[in-house]
């Protein structure tokens, strides 16, 4: 789980020089959900193989990515 920390400063409406401020630190935990599906790097792939091609020959290489963090962003083929 990732966390984002930041500081928010609240200031009153007093004139410059006598303004009073308060800083507050916040921490927000980012929950990983599986809200993205894998996307192939190309919309269309085309390949040709010889009729004499033996088993286990590479025909073409495809890639896809998933914008989610691991494990939901891991892509299997
Ligand atoms: Ca995903």
SSE arrangement:
Layout: E1 2-11, E2 21-30, E3 39-40, E4 64-65
Antiparallel strand pairs: 1-2, 3-4
Bound molecules: calcium ion (CA).
Residues 34, 36-37, 66, 68, 72-73 line the site of calcium ion.
Question: Explain this structure to me?
Answer:
With 77 residues, the protein is an all-beta fold. It has one domain (2-50, 57-65). 0% of the residues lie in helices and 31% in strands. It is built from no helices and 4 strands. The strands form 2 sheets. A two-stranded antiparallel ribbon has the order 1-2. The mean pLDDT is 95. The protein binds calcium ion (CA). Residues 34, 36-37, 66, 68, 72-73 line the site of calcium ion (CA).
Percent in strands: 25-35%
Helix content, binned percent: under 10%
Strand line-up in the sheet with most strands: 1-2
Q: If you average the pLDDT, what whole number results?
A: 95
Helix-and-strand structural type: mainly beta
Strand runs, count: 4
Q: Based on Cα principal axes, name the global outline.
A: rod-shaped
Number of helices: 0
Radius of gyration: 26 Å
Largest sheet: 2 strands, antiparallel
Low-confidence stretches: none
Terminal CA distance: 26 Å
| Number of structurally distinct domains | 1
Ligands, deduplicated: calcium ion
Based on the structure, what is the oligomeric state of the protein chains? single chain
Give a quick set of tags describing it.
mainly beta; two-stranded antiparallel ribbon; 77 residues; binds calcium ion; rod-shaped
């Amino acid at each position: 789980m990732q966390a984002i920390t930041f500081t928010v400063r609240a200031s009153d409406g007093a004139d410059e020089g006598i303004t009073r401020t308060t800083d507050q630190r916040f921490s927000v935990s980012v929950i990983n959900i599986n809200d993205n599906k894998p996307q192939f790097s190309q919309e269309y792939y085309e390949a040709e193989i010889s009729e004499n091609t033996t088993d286990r020959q590479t025909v073409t290489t495809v890639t896809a990515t998933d914008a989610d963090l691991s494990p939901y962003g891991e892509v299997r083929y």
